[in-house]
Amino acid sequence: MRVHRIGALLLALMLAAAGARAEVVVRDDRGVDVALPAVPERVVSLLPSLTESVCAIGACDRLVGTDRFSNWPASVAALPKLGGLEDLPVERIAALKPDVVLVSSSARIIGRLETLGFKVVVLETRNRADTKNTLLLLAKLFDRPGAGDAVWARIEREIAAAAARVPSGLRGQRVYFEIDSTPYAAGPESFVGELLARLHMGNILAPESGPFPKVNPEFVVRAQPDVILASKQNLQEMPMRPGWPSLRALARGKACGFELAQFDLLTRPGPRMGEAAGVLADCLVRVAGAH
Q1: In the prediction, which pLDDT does 232 show?
Q2: DSSP of the chain, one letter per residue?
Q3: For residue 20, what pLDDT band results from cuts at 50, 70 and 90?
């Protein structure tokens, strides 16, 4: 009888061990099912928003390398930095022996990494729905049940609180949010545009313009946005652009220039979107008080 009990115990332990290393399958944004033999222990993240999302669901300790722009939370600063979208070093990534590599669809090394036998999960976070889906997928990948939903619920609470602080007299006014001085702007269909809409603000761009279109500088002048949002450096340069001194928002102080850390926060579709909404609400409160 004792032998049978010992045998049953050993079988239970074997089954438990097998369960602990059960295969994990996630469908990435290419529609590709990526199968891993177990929950990944060594992870390379090659996009700041993905790095932040991994950490937000409690898997920061699995990261062994990131892109050079990943700078939040502070703990990721000590990890090996592996270039940006245009100069990702495959050899250095391979040397880290990752169980999985997280990349955006615009990364050029996806095929090379897969040829070398590495598991690659491709994620695209263009809007709020994508951001939520990324959090849920990562929670599944790292076997963190409920973690993605919890982070998203917090984001929604923070956005709602920020929206309530936007002055009523400013609601509905049209925003020009400059992403880059080329200029590229945030359209209504982008996560930035969607966040502004949640804060009761409009947009000088039409939805069909795309998420982050390159715009004609003359279009911005003709559109006469009510509020201008940009990096601090770009905002300071705007009065020197041909025709832009005629923008009434600049003349009236209806603009906010964000320091680099804040601008990073505003332009990353990740778990700090609720915090970004608070930064925007603070800006709009200041704009409402400008004369």
Answers
A1: 98
A2: -HHHHHHHHHHHHHHHHHHHT--EEEE-TTS-EEEESSS-SSEEE-SHHHHHHHHHTT-GGGEEEE-TT---SGGGGGSPB---TT---HHHHHHT--SEEEE-TT-TTHHHHHHTT--EEE----SHHHHHHHHHHHHHHTT-TTHHHHHHHHHHHHHHHHHHHS-GGGTT-EEEEEEETTTEE--TTSHHHHHHHHTT-EESS-GGG-SS-B--HHHHHHH--SEEEEEHHHHHHGGGSTTGGG-HHHHTT-EEEE-HHHHHHHT--STTHHHHHHHHHHHHHHHHT--
A3: very low
